[in-house]
Amino acid sequence: MMNVYNSLTRRVEELKPLEGNEIRLYTCGPTVYNFAHIGNFRAYAFEDILRRVVQFNGMKIRQVMNLTDVDDKTIRGANAAGVALTDYTKTYKDAFFADLKKLNIQPAEVYPAATDHIPEMIALVQKLMDKGVAYQSEDGSVYFKVREFPGYGKLAHIDFDNQRTGLRCAADEYDKENVGDFALWKAWEESDGPVGWDSPWGRGRPGWHIECSAMSMKYLGETFDLHTGGIDNLFPHHENEIAQAEAATGKEFVRTWMHCAHLRVNGEKMSKSAGNFFTLRDLLEKGYTGREIRYVLINAHYRTGLNFAFDALEDARKSLSRIDACVDRLARVAKTSSHPEGIRLPL
Questions:
Q1: Worst-scoring range by mean pLDDT, 65-74, 96-105, 197-206, 325-334?
Q2: Among 3.40.50.300, 3.20.20.10, 3.40.50.620, 3.30.559.30, what is the CATH number of 19-265?
Q3: What integer is the mean pLDDT of 294-309?
């Protein structure tokens, strides 16, 4: 038996497969507009531990992690660099996979990129239009009618009576106070440059939220076991995923949701302007190893806020050295070490 905390019900519940002996897991992957920072990797390390525990408990796992390669940030970055969107995002996709290896994170079974699944997204938007829970605005964009989905807010536990409603949220990311109709399909604008696809509503591109709903259901089915991500994705992103999927299918979207708490740096929110924004590469260049960084990232319960400091990396180095020395001594006593350098725990 494996019990986990379900963000949807706010209770500890048994995690068991809906079908057979396989947990179907969707994890929110990177938006490939820059190198992933260590806050992102705290979530990916948590998901890796979760994946390994599922396997340890005798269950199989099918994990899908998306690559967001078209959204506000990627388009803005590609246009500023004067390069094609695919060329711009490829750099950061390649870097992301290299970083996963450095941190000894097991690969997911599928890494779908948003730009490879535009037809699935258009089909999902059309289904929502046909069901009357979406509409096209004057500018050609398509929005989801939040008030037409009675279950909206059940993940974030939003009280509609105390929220600003009746708004349209065109941006991919927005604050919890801005509860309103959100974009499913964004009409092409001049600032989008060459980025755009033809659709029944004109040229444009998908909203961020519809991407995950379409890709997760394509690879895991209309209802699957487990969805994870950082706590910052709980609203609006995951809330909107639920609304889109359940309004389209009439079925429960995901049984269990798990969210990882924030990583702070020296007690402060990580940001470029504060000068405390670190990528994995920044730390590797300072002489730390992926193993030491991973040790820090998993050194607290996933729902507990974790504070990152360079002292923690130094402590991790010492702790790993003690662990390795202990394992080597045990191996020598048992005379089971076949490697000249002894045994190293991979963590």
A1: 325-334
A2: 3.40.50.620
A3: 95
